[in-house]
Amino acid sequence: MTRHLRDLLITVIAGMGMLLSTLDTGIINVALSFLKGQFQTTTNIASFTITGYTLALAISILPLGVLSDKFGKLKISYLGFVLFGLSSLFCGFANSIGWLIAGRIVQGIGAAALQATSAALITTLVSEERKNSAISILGVMIGLGPVLGPSLGGILLSLNLWRFIFWINVPFAIIGIICNHYLLNRVSEETSERTLDTIGTAMNALMLICLLLGLSLLSKPHLLVVSLILIITSLLIGIVFYYIEYKTNHALIDVKGLKDNSQVISYLFQTVTFGFASAMIFLLPPFIFEQLYHLGVGQTGFLVLGAPAGLVLFSRISGKVNDGSKNKSFSHIGLGIILLSLIFLLLLTPSWSYLFLTLGLFIYGVGGGYFQPANIASIMQASPIEMQGSTGVLQRMVQNVAISTGSAVGSTCLNLWPNNLLLVTRIGWGITLVLVIMSLKDMIFSKYNN
Question: TM spans, by residue (predicted)?
């Protein structure tokens, strides 16, 4: 097997795994009303098809990252494709909402295995000269998944092919399994002797369950107290989790290492900022186009592609220009462009043409295209090779939580001020702007101190 073929197959596996796992985070969102009628159930129960997947992914991703360091990224990736493919097949055949939810939970575990290994496969197995190009492709897949999911789901529903929302994953999972199997017999990986921290895993699971359930209920006024109790409980568990992990030799999260590495903490804070910002950018514009500009669904669907178009295009451009030595600079540039896009969007008024909104979204996407691949590469470079799996999943976990938080804050604002969309956008993008400024300030201070 040539080095070029090996790099190509690893990039395919990593990119496809990330695309499938992020695609299925949102592909079922547009089908909730349909599933409610199809299975004669309530909206709250149908929503567990989303919550079950999200929770399973969030809870499983850290322990699977540890296992990928111990047994090898290719083996865990292989397991991920098998679980994801079989559960997708199962979901399509489900004849009750209970079985569908069960299938989605298994699918979430498979998605966690795929996300846990995607970045680490590239940083540990792809040759140096192709590594940054491969990471840029990973950035494209992360950006494409959340956008393609709802669009693809809507098309399949309109064709009365709801089962293909799940079955469409199967052929791609089979390709992933074949490529993985081929590589498993020909590539040797460097592994570690890490053991799984069972207490840390249990506490992390409890913390994330409380946090994600609390965030999901935040936008429902009659459950606001329950939501706040769950979020506060998750924070308290998080504090206990931190002190336990700090004293544990084989911690699920290397708290000691993070505490001594201010650069990685800075990179992770930037990841949180970008995740929160992406949630706001994808959540609010459709409401603006439809309610303030009175455009149709089809036109809106086309105009909101500004952000993903910019992200996809400039992820590839930045990947070709960056040889791996410009990650900090590109992160700086990316956050700076995102800052400009948010200022531009905050100045936007309904008297301006709706094309300016698409332009603002495109500028944001350009910033994301520069930032995301460089951010991933920076985090992975700051971690020893035997910890690449754990580091990669920590990056994905904090970004997923940040996306959930951004979506919850945005949805809550929409519910609080349903008749003042302009105020909602000002608040949402204003909070995001503050986070970006804090990230840039943190980045500058971190660079100065080092």
Answer: 7-32, 44-66, 78-102, 108-127, 134-158, 164-184, 196-218, 224-244, 264-284, 296-317, 329-348, 354-376, 423-440
CATH number, position 18: 1.20.1250.20
Cα(first)–Cα(last) distance of the chain, in Å? 42
Same domain for 361 and 290: yes
Q: What is the residue-level pLDDT of the chain in tens, covering all 450 positions? A: 788 899 999 999 999 999 898 888 777 777 877 888 889 988 778 888 888 898 999 899 989 988 888 898 999 999 999 999 999 999 999 999 999 999 999 999 999 999 989 988 998 888 888 888 888 888 888 877 777 777 777 778 878 888 998 999 999 999 999 999 999 888 888 777 778 888 989 999 999 999 989 988 887 888 889 999 999 999 999 999 999 988 887 888 878 777 777 788 888 899 999 999 988 888 888 888 888 888 886 787 788 888 888 888 888 888 778 777 788 888 889 999 999 999 999 998 888 999 999 999 999 999 998 998 888 888 887 777 666 667 778 888 888 889 888 888 888 888 888 888 889 999 999 999 999 999 887 666 555 455
Cα–Cα distance measured from residue 384 to residue 334, given in angstroms and rounded to the nearest whole number: 26
- The domain containing residue 2 runs over which residues? 1-194
The residue out of 251, 270, 286 marking a domain boundary is 251
Dist. CA 102–CA 50, nearest whole Å = 11
Q: Which of 171, 174, 194, 196 is nearest to 78 (CA)?
A: 174
Which of 397, 22, 399, 45 is CA-nearest to residue 208? 397
Taking the mean position of all CA atoms in its chain, how far away is CA 207?
Answer: 19
Q: What is the DSSP letter of 109?
A: H
Q: How many structural domains comprise the chain?
A: 3
